Amino acid sequence: VDRVLRGRIDDRFATVRLGGLNLDAREARSMRRVKILGCGSAYHAGQIGAQMIEELARIPADAEPASEFRYRNPVVDPDTLYIAVSQSGETYDTLAAVQELKRKGARVLGVVNVVGSAIARETDGGVYVHAGPEVCVVSTKCFTNTAVAFALLALHLGRIRDLSVADGKRIIEGLRKLPGQIAEIMELEDHIATLAKEFADAKSMMFVGRVRGYPVAREASLKLKEISYIHAEAYPASELKHGPLALIEPATPTVAIVPRDDLLEKNRATLEEIKARSGRILAVAHEPQEKADDTIVVPRNEPELDPVLMGIPLQLLAYHTALALGRDIDKPRNLAKSVTV
Ligand code: F1P
């Protein structure tokens, strides 16, 4: 995270410098929508990015799996800024989506880790994530850094459009706190490893989160599936009552993402609904949750940056669950470093 922030924050003007972005102020002001495309963890980081762009720059934004977008003959809109997200920069579905967009005359930026990769070359500009090489197949630090890169981009767009200087300063201070807070979360590893041993027996797990917590829930469930092979579902917390509550029972533990935002009370009510069905609950929150059996307590930052911090203990949870099950974590089955077909 230090690396993605380095040299990019300008305290004096409460803004950020994004050298290779290649998007001038006139273009940034005239765009009507942002559409983010990526696969797997890159898609989930894109969901976080879309929320940050809506919150900090007030531009309507959404994320879609590139692997869906490329097959559905989408309407390509000249007033939409498209952003392709990829760790490797080689994922074929994402590259194909970029090429299709370029053919139709769209402007496409990249949020990419590997410098000079195919997606970095094909896009019109963008932000490098500077997460360094991902030594294992699954994306971990790149997911975190991509979320931070989106915070920088959202801040930049927000300052060009209508974000107040005070808000800019608040987010910049929050960004500066991240590396120290991530180090604090890493101190929780032993506690998380102990919790993971309890989850290693689960046949299935449920991950729930609302708004900022939802992409974190999705990514956490993907990490668990990828490396431990435990079945996991991720649901927006408010969707539970539309069917999936039927799955909650003692043998299906739930991980609930409970940030301290204006949805805190709603999130606590969700914990109650799950508890009432005797489901075991692990919460990720800023303070211990009464209804949960255990809470992983993460430091508080600006609410917009919660997804950056709250994903990390759940990467550790997936890692230690897989370790407890004796899985080959760096080479999980059926997963390639960059999916090229
Ligand atoms: C996308 C992705 C990763 C996943 C695995 C397979 O890769 O789905 O999120 O962990 O490596 O590919 P990328 O486009 O971000 O390189």
TrEMBL record:
GO terms for molecular function: carbohydrate derivative binding; glutamine-fructose-6-phosphate transaminase (isomerizing) activity. The keyword Repeat applies. It catalyses: D-fructose 6-phosphate + L-glutamine = D-glucosamine 6-phosphate + L-glutamate. One of its GO terms (biological process) is fructose 6-phosphate metabolic process. Its EC number is 2.6.1.16. Keywords: Aminotransferase, Cytoplasm, Glutamine amidotransferase, Repeat, Transferase. It is an enzyme of class 2 (transferase). Its main location: cytoplasm. It is found in: Cytoplasm. GO terms for cellular component: cytosol. The active site is at residue 337. Residues 23-163, 195-332 form the SIS domain. Homodimer. Catalyzes the first step in hexosamine metabolism, converting fructose-6P into glucosamine-6P using glutamine as a nitrogen source. This is Glutamine--fructose-6-phosphate aminotransferase [isomerizing]. It comes from Streptomyces lonarensis. The lineage of its organism: Bacteria, Bacillati, Actinomycetota, Actinomycetes, Kitasatosporales.
